[in-house]
């Protein structure tokens, strides 16, 4: 120590002495002494070449300090200075590196963890990697400095390799778990979707790819790996039937995880905050009753001359009512259409208002809203008098309670099914819950190929532009379908991807059929459906399920005919439903009927309705194409299309792809 002090003695005027010890460097001058401790110094002092004499540079948080020194054995002095600084800092470095390594070993390298790791590495690098280390001191740092250098200099491929190594280890460690948690062994893609735990994660799961199994396994893995407690996991399903199925499978897997619909989630939040279960209005559940209320409200409001004039003007401008008429016919088809439109708009308007996105609509449809707003006010007054709410109030009020922390959730991991059907209002509720925790996770499972609910408020861009809406994320795909054979998969995939905006997926089928999976047959007689069921009964195994599918309810056999068909073909289990209702369901065989030139429909949505929906896609009939894809992919064995004399353009297109 004395040698260092002698070698580095200060020689400039005004400085009387400099002392170096295990505490730090003390510089003494006419203004007194000042201690620069080793802990305060950002990196080891460095001896620099000066114009006249060498200088000792000290790195302090407030800036660099330079002190002239005498000539001497600089190598020895520099070594000793580094050694003293290292002795003061090495424990802190080792602890920091141990913390960094622990983070990287225990968790998947998510976007947030990567940002944290890089931030730690960058800060440490400023102290440890910006100066040349004496080789004799390498033993002090060993693995610590190597780890720091590795993380600090990570390139995209290094990050990818690190993630893949973690995934491989988790797949090996939890192999037995994934073999049994969902009832049957998961595929590699399904397992990978489980062990990747990013803050924001989108799993694209095509028809029949086993998305429900993945959601069950994901919840189980989070618990088994110690990542989350069951109480910290919330699963959200689109409908009550799907939620019940999910809850049943969770019980089978011995998982006490909550599964709710968005509606039951809203009720739960309001019940917790308000101390009682909210009452849902009858107008919210009964479309016929809601329309009757609107009609009676219009009649009542027309007692006001100004409103009566505005309503009459609206009927003439927007609904082609008789321009010469001075009276309103409340039983006319025009009035029925307006009432139906108002019924649809109530929910859309309230959702848009809760999201603060009404400004453009109000400017463009001022004359329309002059009639609609008084009706909406009466509707809301009715709900208040009934001491009830509707579904839109439920979601917006629940979101408000979460945002102002009147409701505090324990959910850190939110798993959302059928994400392609989510609306902006529901997405806002999910964001609000996620925002309550510093580290939160969204696992969204959906399929842009099956997005068919734009008319009810779904916004496909929340899926196709997931990262833009929810932040840096991981997007994965399931690559195997268990439902239908490869030839049908090829046809249906090619058909839906004629729209270039659909996300291309590489999916293969588990089944290869020895007969064509899709058959198009000319519908030459009125009893073509009866004939097809007769053929099926001859070769299909007993108790085979059959779904009769049509685009519209009016194209399906009436209930009386269905009863007769079920009685006549009692070896088959026959159901009939629309394409929309068939989503999420499957059968051994499907028969598609009613596919004339009315499918896809050329009917345009009213401009006021369009104003509240997600922007219309540029590709013609984009949603109708996806809906037909849904219909095509319901059968496990064979799909039959009964083609009328004037077939849908979709039938022609499919025939060309076969």
Structural commentary:
The protein has 658 residues and is α/β, with parallel strands linked by helices. The strands form 5 sheets. A 6-stranded parallel β-sheet has the order 9-8-10-11-7-12. The radius of gyration is 35 Å and the shape is elongated. The N and C termini lie far apart (88 Å). Mean pLDDT is 92; it is low at 5-13.
Strand portion: 15-25%
- Distinct helical segment count: 28
Indicate the mean pLDDT.
92
C-alpha Rg, in Å? 35 Å
User: Any idea what the shape is?
Assistant: elongated
State the end-to-end CA separation. Answer: 88 Å
Number of strands: 19
Biggest sheet statistics: 6 strands, parallel
Major β-sheet strand ordering: 9-8-10-11-7-12
Structural class: alpha/beta
| Percentage of residues in helical conformation | 40-55%
Low-confidence stretches: 5-13
Assembly state of the chains shown? single chain
Structural topology:
Elements: H1 2-7, E1 15-20, E2 24-29, E3 32-37, E4 46-48, E5 55-60, E6 63-68, H2 74-106, H3 111-128, H4 138-141, H5 143-152, H6 156-173, H7 175-180, H8 188-195, E7 200-204, H9 211-224, E8 233-237, H10 240-252, E9 258-261, H11 262-274, H12 282-285, H13 287-301, H14 305-318, H15 333-354, H16 359-364, H17 366-386, H18 391-403, E10 413-416, H19 424-434, E11 441-446, H20 461-464, H21 466-470, E12 474-477, E13 480-481, H22 486-496, E14 508-509, E15 518-522, H23 528-539, E16 544-550, H24 559-568, E17 572-578, H25 579-582, E18 587-592, H26 607-610, H27 622-632, E19 635-643, H28 649-657
Parallel strand pairs: 7-11, 7-12, 8-9, 8-10, 10-11, 13-14, 15-19, 16-17, 16-18, 18-19
Antiparallel strand pairs: 1-2, 2-3, 4-5, 5-6
Helix pairs in contact: 2-3, 2-5, 3-5, 8-9, 11-18, 13-15, 13-17, 14-17, 15-18, 18-19, 22-27
């Amino acid at each position: 120590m004395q040698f260092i002090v002698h070698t580095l003695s200060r020689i400039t005027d005004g400085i009387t002495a400099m002392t170096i010890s295990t505490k730090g460097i003390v510089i003494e001058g006419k203004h007194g002494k000042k201690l620069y401790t080793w802990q305060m110094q950002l990196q080891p002092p460095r001896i620099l070449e000066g114009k006249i004499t060498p200088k000792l540079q000290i790195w302090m948080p407030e800036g660099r300090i330079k002190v002239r020194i005498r000539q001497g054995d600089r190598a020895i002095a520099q070594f000793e200075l580094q050694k003293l600084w290292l002795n003061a800092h090495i424990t802190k470095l080792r602890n920091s590196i141990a913390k960094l390594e622990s983070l990287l070993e225990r968790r998947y390298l998510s976007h947030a963890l990567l940002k944290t790791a890089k931030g730690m590495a960058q800060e440490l690098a400023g102290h440890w990697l910006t100066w040349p280390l004496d080789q004799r001191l390498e033993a002090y740092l060993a693995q610590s400095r190597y780890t720091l250098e590795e993380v600090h200099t990570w390139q995209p491929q290094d990050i990818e390799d690190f993630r893949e190594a973690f995934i491989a280890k988790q797949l090996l460690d939890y192999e037995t778990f994934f073999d049994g948690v969902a009832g049957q062994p998961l595929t590699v893609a399904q397992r990978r979707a489980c062990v990747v735990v990013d803050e924001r994660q989108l799993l694209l799961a095509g028809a029949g790819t086993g998305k429900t199994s993945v959601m069950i396994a994901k919840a189980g893995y989070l618990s088994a790996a110690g990542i989350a407690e069951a109480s910290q996991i919330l699963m959200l399903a689109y409908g009550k039937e799907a939620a019940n199925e999910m809850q049943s499978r969770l019980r089978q897997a011995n998982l006490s995880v909550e599964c709710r619909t968005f509606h039951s989630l809203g009720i739960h939040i309001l019940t917790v905050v308000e101390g009682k279960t909210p009452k849902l209005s009858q107008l919210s559940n009964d479309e016929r009753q809601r329309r009757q209320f609107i009609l009676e409200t219009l009649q009542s409001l027309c007692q006001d001359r100004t409103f009566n004039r505005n309503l009459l003007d609206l009927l003439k401008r927007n609904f082609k009512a008789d321009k010469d008429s001075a009276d309103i016919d409340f039983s006319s088809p025009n009035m029925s259409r307006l009432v139906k439109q108002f019924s649809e708009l109530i929910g859309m308007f309230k959702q848009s208002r809760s999201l603060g996105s009404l400004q453009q609509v109000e400017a463009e449809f001022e004359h329309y809203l002059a009639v609609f707003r008084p009706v909406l006010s009466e509707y809301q007054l009715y709900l208040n008098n009934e001491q009830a709410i509707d579904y839109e109030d439920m979601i917006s009020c629940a979101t408000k309670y979460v945002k102002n922390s009147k409701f505090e959730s324990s959910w850190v991991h939110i798993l959302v099914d059928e994400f392609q059907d989510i609306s902006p209002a529901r997405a806002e509720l999910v964001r609000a819950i996620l925002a309550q925790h510093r580290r939160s996770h969204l696992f969204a499972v959906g399929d842009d190929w099956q997005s068919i609910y734009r008319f009810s408020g779904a916004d496909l861009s929340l899926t196709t532009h997931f990262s833009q809406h929810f932040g840096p994320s991981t997007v994965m795909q399931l690559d195997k379908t268990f439902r239908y054979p490869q030839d049908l998969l090829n046809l249906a995939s090619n058909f839906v991807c004629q729209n270039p905006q659909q996300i291309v997926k590489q999916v293969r089928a588990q089944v290869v059929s020895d007969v064509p999976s899709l058959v198009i047959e000319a519908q030459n007689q009125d009893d073509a459906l009866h004939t097809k069921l007769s053929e099926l009964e001859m070769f299909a195994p007993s108790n085979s399920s059959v779904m009769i599918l049509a685009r519209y309810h009016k194209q399906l056999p009436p209930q009386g005919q269905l009863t007769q068909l079920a009685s006549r073909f009692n070896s088959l289990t026959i159901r009939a439903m629309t394409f929309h209702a068939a989503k999420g369901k499957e059968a051994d065989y499907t028969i598609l009927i009613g596919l004339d030139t009315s499918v896809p429909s050329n009917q345009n949505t009213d401009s006021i309705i369009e104003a509240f929906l997600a922007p219309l896609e540029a590709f013609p009939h984009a949603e109708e194409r996806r809906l037909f894809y849904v219909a095509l992919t319901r059968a496990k064995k064979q799909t039959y299309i009964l083609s009328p004399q004037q077939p849908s353009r979709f039938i022609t297109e499919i025939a060309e792809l076969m």
